[in-house]
Design a protein that fits this description.
The chain has 2 domains: 222 residues, Alpha-Beta Complex (Sulfite Oxidase, Chain A, domain 2); 113 residues, Immunoglobulin-like (Sandwich). 8% of the residues lie in helices and 37% in strands. It is built from 5 helices and 22 strands. The chain has a 6-stranded mixed beta sheet with strand order 14-15-22-21-17-18, with no helix packed on it. A hairpin with an 8-residue loop joins strand 19 and strand 20. The termini are far apart. The structure holds the ligand Nc1nc2c(c(=O)[nH]1)N[C@H]1C(S)=C(S)[C@@H](COP(=O)(O)O)O[C@H]1N2 and molybdenum atom (MO). Molybdenum atom binds next to loops. The site of the ligand Nc1nc2c(c(=O)[nH]1)N[C@H]1C(S)=C(S)[C@@H](COP(=O)(O)O)O[C@H]1N2 has 18 residues, from strand 5.
């Protein structure tokens, strides 16, 4: 078995820049939309986007089941459908703020978005297959294939049966009311609300019921929180409490630094947590925290918040931090993780206010 990629300190590599260009983030001004327009939704593709012919595509549901199923897309879209508004964040979001960093997609903070996903509850299809009593996990096999750490594999992940059967877990064929675009998993993807994005397997080909833990690389080796090399680590599951604000004013093209006119500035942002609804958001003005006002909450969708700022000329650092109803609070500094996973340290935006 080949080893992990060694950590990097210092400047980005050509490989990281190539990954960044393929896997774009959501521009932060899109935080002004509750529902991210599909073309602005962040993207993470490990290998190549597969070309799938919808007319010949089928989904196999097999393994430890009494009645294996083979379904075409039309059979799936004829079943009772459900639409959920779901915020998805990449587990590696914020990786670029951690040093030394893990060689992978260099997200700063833009690996998060919200979409309306329409599809069939996974539980409805699993019921039809009559799972055997011994089933422990459900494996989701994607159509995309490549190498990671020297191991050739199709992208695949599993869920423990209790999570797979949750009513909000969807097999989605529409995003924001139109068929899934190729990059987001056409023709069918899994959507696991409240979990980091890696759980939501795209380009589904088959779903397999197994009676042991799934040992695939993306499950057993990748996507673990690890503080020290060689540790087994804790699997990445629910999204940690996090928040962002939409940068106010206008940017400088190259540095992205912001310029704001003096006066009343309406600051808006979004906050989310996989573990529990958002309880509070604070807006930080050069280190002084102010209570922000929360918009209405929805179960799987980030929560809007706003704060009013009487901006006087000068240099400022804006930030925000959220606390959820389980008592989780964002740390001020990025938490250390070898792969840069789960970085929910507070965002900081430099702003010049001019008279
Ligand atoms: N088959 C497959 N599914 C996948 C991936 C992938 O590379 N291949 N990437 C995962 C990761 S790490 C994330 S964060 C989300 C991103 O979903 P999006 O590109 O639709 O935003 O898809 C997940 N599902
Ligand atoms: Mo991800």
């Amino acid at each position: 078995m080949s080893s992990r990629r060694p950590p990097i300190a210092g400047r980005y590599t050509a490989e990281e820049l190539a990954l960044a260009a393929r896997n774009r983030g959501m521009p932060l001004e899109a935080l002004r939309h509750e529902l991210t327009p599909a073309g602005l939704h962040y993207l993470l593709v490990h290998f190549d986007i597969p070309v799938v012919d919808v007319n010949t595509w089928t989904l196999q549901i097999n393994g430890r089941v009494e009645k294996p199923l083979t379904l075409g897309l039309q059979e799936i879209t004829r079943l009772p459908a459900k639409t959920l508004r779901v915020t998805m964040e990449c587990a590696g979001n914020g990786r670029a703020q951690v040093s030394p960093r893990y060689p992978s997609v260099p997200w700063l903070e833009e690996g998060v978005s919200t979409a309306d996903w329409t599809g069939v509850p996974l539980s409805a299809l699993l019921e039809r297959t009559a799972l055997k009593k011994t089933v422990k996990e459900i494996v989701f096999h994607g159509a995309d294939r490549g190498f990671d750490a020297g191991v050739e594999h199709d992208f695949a992940r599993s869920l423990a049966l209790e999570h797979a059967l949750r009513e909000e877990v969807l097999l989605a064929y529409e995003m924001n009311g139109t068929p899934l675009p190729p990059q987001h998993g056409a023709p069918l993807r899994l959507v696991v609300p409240r979990w980091y994005g890696m759980a939501s397997v795209k380009w589904l080909r088959s779903i397999e019921a197994i009676d042991r833990p799934f040992e695939g690389l993306q499950q057993a080796r990748s996507y673990h929180f690890r503080r020290h090399p060689g540790e087994k680590g804790e699997p990445c599951t629910l999204m940690r409490v996090n928040s962002l604000l939409a940068p106010p004013g206008i940017p400088d093209f190259y540095t992205r630094k912001r310029v704001v006119e003096a006066g009343t500035v309406e600051i808006v942002g979004r906050a989310w947590s996989g573990a529990a609804p958002i309880a509070r958001v604070e807006f930080g003005l050069s280190g002084v925290w102010h209570e922000a006002q929360l918009d209405g909450a929805a179960p799987f969708c980030w929560q809007g918040w706003r704060a009013r700022w009487q901006a006087r000329p000068g240099e400022y650092e804006l930030s925000c931090r959220a606390i959820d109803h389980a008592g989780n609070r964002q740390p001020l500094e990025p938490p250390w993780d070898l792969s840069g996973f789960g970085n929910n340290g507070v965002q900081r935006i430099a702003v010049t206010v001019r008279a």
